[in-house]
């Protein structure tokens, strides 16, 4: 049996809590909300892949308006929608208690919910901290892309023409 430190970090995100606390969402249409939800899932999927985390994002069914949507896995992220009458907080707490003993972080800005999940042995990650993790990951990916793009460009395109001519003369033995 694996010790808690050798197991994958599990992150449970209260999806709408994250979206509402990190974005300016006054009056938003169902289509825009669905786009934001999908973008969050996409971002969390990248984070799960690059950090090797097990990520579950929980959405309240009552908030999304599309009760017919089913729970699903989107690549590395498990997406759960609550049952009628159940809150995302309740579902996240259930997940924490089912996985007691594992290294679990619950992402929410709801203080009461944070305190209840602590009782199950989970750690708190604020929505601000998750947003910071996502920004940091994007910077890391960008810097890796810039580095790898430079390596894929021929040296003749990366150096000054004058230097290129001098190197060509050296190569041909005309120095």
What is the element layout, followed by pairings?
Layout: E1 10-14, H1 15-22, H2 30-51, E2 54-59, H3 61-64, E3 72-74, E4 77-81, H4 88-98, E5 104-107, H5 111-119, E6 123-125, H6 127-152, H7 155-158, H8 161-172
Parallel strand pairs: 1-2, 1-5, 2-4, 5-6
Antiparallel strand pairs: 3-4
Q: Which regions contain 5 or more consecutive residues with pLDDT less than 50?
A: 1-6, 64-70
- CATH topology-level name: Rossmann fold
Order of helices and strands: EHHEHEEHEHEHHH
Q: What structural class results from the helix and strand content?
A: alpha/beta
Short description:
With 175 residues, the protein is α/β, with parallel strands linked by helices.
Notable features of this structure?
single chain; 175 residues; alpha/beta; Rossmann fold; 6-stranded mixed beta sheet; 8 helices; 6 strands; 55% helix; 15% strand; elongated
Question: What does this protein look like?
Answer:
By secondary structure, this protein is of the alpha/beta class. Helices cover 55% and strands 15% of the residues. It has eight helices and six strands. The protein has helices spanning 15-22, 30-51, 61-64, 88-98, 111-119, 127-152, 155-158, 161-172; strands at 10-14, 54-59, 72-74, 77-81, 104-107, 123-125. Strand 3 (72-74) and strand 4 form a beta hairpin. The longest helix is centred in the C-terminal third of the chain and has 26 residues, at 127-152. The radius of gyration is 23 Å and the shape is elongated.
